[in-house]
Amino acid sequence: MLIKESFVRVEDLNLKELLELDPAGGMVHFAGQRALIFDAVSHGLLRKELIDSFGERVARGILSRYGYIHGRRLAETMKNKYRWHSDDEWRRAGARIYALQGLFMLDPNGPIAFGPEGGSWLVSYEAEQHILLKGRSENSVCWTLSGLLSGYLSFATGKEMYALEDKCVGKGDAACHVMIKSEEEWGDSVGSELAVFKRVGIDEALRDVTTTLKRTESELNEKIKKLAVIAKIEEDPAELMERSPEMRKLMELARTIAVVDSTVLVTGPSGAGKERIARFVHDHSARAAGPFIAINCGAITEPLLESELFGHAKGSFTGATIDRPGLFEAANGGTLFLDEVGEIALSMQVKLLRALQEREVRRVGENKTRPINVRVVSATNKNLKIEVAEKRFREDLYYRLNIVELAVPALHDRREDILPLARSLLAEAAIRMKRNVNGLTTEAADLLLAYAWPGNVRELANAMERAAVVAKGNRVEAHDLPSELRMAMPLVSDKGVPRFLRDVEKDCILGALEKTHGNRVEAAELMGLGVATLYRKLKLYKLDKALVD
Fold first, then answer.
1. Helix, strand, coil % in the chain, rounded to nearest 5
2. What span, in angstroms and rounded, lies between the C-alpha atoms of 116 and 203?
């Protein structure tokens, strides 16, 4: 039996004694520690998600680091729980334990345990799942297993040891073979390979991913501009189609203040494109090479918002397991965009004001302050002057944020921008969804111009995305647009003069009948009319013979 008082050898390790099951309660323990049972496929699917989302380098770093931490913990547990025949037995036990857990099979012709000389394993669950879900690789794929051995031996030997595969089933070898050496023994030739076991290595890989994403975004913008040319749209760096006098004036001011490092308040109705304006200011400023970080202040509770903006120290609240910098620190050298700033609670406004005035932040749970170098651009769809008057927003914070105000007009107030913007958004959606749609029919364009756009640019973007999906040809037809556009009845003609009341009423009746699929009783109820009144108006407008019940 593996008990504390007996001396244990590697050969004594037995699954029946290491594994403790409680069938009634469902608790599982392995080597005295609570364990969880997951199927190998679920781990394989997680691995695939990591690779697909972040790339192979980041995925390898995360899984290797996870294995390394797990390995160190197991080595410590085995050291404290059992009396080993010798420290060498304890050090060599790692591979044997992992084989008993079902992670791989030890080579029957090889050693029962691995030491610094390494060894071979068969039927690796990692190699099996990688081949199943991603196919054969050009590189070794047993990342978690290598991390487990590295962490176990690092704790057991008292120095950093790293296991690297020189053979792997995942790349077509008959068996997996790992070599285990210290960092000094590996030397500089495999420096980048060892980085995956360290936190800093993952950080560097994530920075590479960020750089790649920025490059991809830039390439996508170039494609959008090319398609926009096909759609006969002039190049517009703001992607806001500044054709109207109102938008031209706004963008001229935005270009002017972009080069001046002051706070900016972007105002306007919801969905008008305030974040695009903020990004334009950032992209045309001296901070363009720095990060642009956006946060929706209205979607986060006050305690969490403080942690998000200023960061927190380990142990400062439940769940704070590590020190974490806030967005002010993350945006150093760049721009922090505070969307929906009018939703911030008064108590939080005081802390935000102090950070802006002192240009320093204090993490939650810390006493020391940290300097910040950030430009703040904020946005709101509220009238902050009214909020100040009603004592819901601090006057001093309002003037600190509103050094310069950029007021974005609603889309219905800049109708000259609707069609160019619609074509640009259509081009963007068509590229993203790989659809060959590059224009609007006259009827579709007329509907876009006639609609009031209560949801502003956001609603237009959604309409163009829908049109790109459902369009059967290479141009958007009227019936490809959302029903609310097709049913909309403009009160002003395309020549800018008011429409006759009879025309508006006629369109209203037709729209109601279309919505109720010709059911006149339901259409009358929808319009708040009596059925007899509806029949009379149908006859008046000579629609009774054209429509069929």
1. 55, 15, 35
2. 28
